[in-house]
């Protein structure tokens, strides 16, 4: 194989000023303003100024203010897919899905902003409701794809869709309880939600 010429390996010069902050810094700046001014009254311009970045830089990372509380949601969905893919093929379907849901909700308690801060804002801000519906749909689709692969049906069929909706309902019920009780354990609530649902269905039969 021929060696590359000098022209071929020359890298283009860096355009613009170096990044002065990380995504974590931007999110911390945004959450400070959300706490001080409220979500509705905080603008993207104000967040950019607080974080010390150009407005153009902020919009390169987040298409809108509504995306900031969700962080890098695309990466969390990739992690969710990996958790489901790692489940043993002989594990009962409901255990594989719910086990992945529980692990998906295991977050670093030292992160800033905290997961509790994020979810309190997402679930408690009316302006975020429509955006949340889109994110929930993307999350349910990951489950539907996995269930479809395990059962040999299409992701749009009834069972994959139902499992996605049930998993979301269990998660939201656990989150509402968790946010209302600072001493509660989120992962335990998620596990208990599934246990109680199965007990209810067992009595109903």
Write a concise synopsis of the structure shown.
This is Mycofactocin system transcriptional regulator. By secondary structure, the chain is an all-alpha fold. It has ten helices and no strands.
Considering DSSP H and I runs of 4 or more, what fraction of the residues is helical? 55-70%
The CA-CA distance between the termini, in Å, is: 70 Å
Spatial shape? globular
User: Can you tell me the CATH architecture of the largest domain?
Assistant: Orthogonal Bundle
CATH class type of the largest domain:
Mainly Alpha
Question: Which strand-content bin applies to the residues?
Answer: under 5%
Order of helices and strands: HHHHHHHHHH
Q: What is the CATH fold-level name of the largest domain?
A: Tetracycline Repressor, domain 2
Descriptive report:
Residues 1-20 have low confidence and may be disordered. The protein folds into 2 domains: 19-68, Arc Repressor Mutant, subunit A (Orthogonal Bundle); 72-204, Tetracycline Repressor, domain 2 (Orthogonal Bundle). Helix 5 (73-85) packs parallel to helix 8 and helix 8 (129-151) crosses helix 9 (158-180). 65% of the residues lie in helices and 0% in strands. It is globular, with a radius of gyration of 21 Å. By secondary structure, the chain is mainly α. It has helices spanning 6-9, 23-37, 44-51, 55-61, 73-85, 93-104, 115-124, 129-151, 158-180, 186-204. InterPro entries: Homeodomain-like_sf (IPR009057), HTH-type_TetR-like_transc_reg (IPR050109), HTH_TetR (IPR001647), MftR_C (IPR041347), Tscrpt_reg_TetR-type (IPR023851). This is Mycofactocin system transcriptional regulator. Residues 1-21 are annotated as: Disordered. Pfam families: TetR_C_14 (PF17754), TetR_N (PF00440).
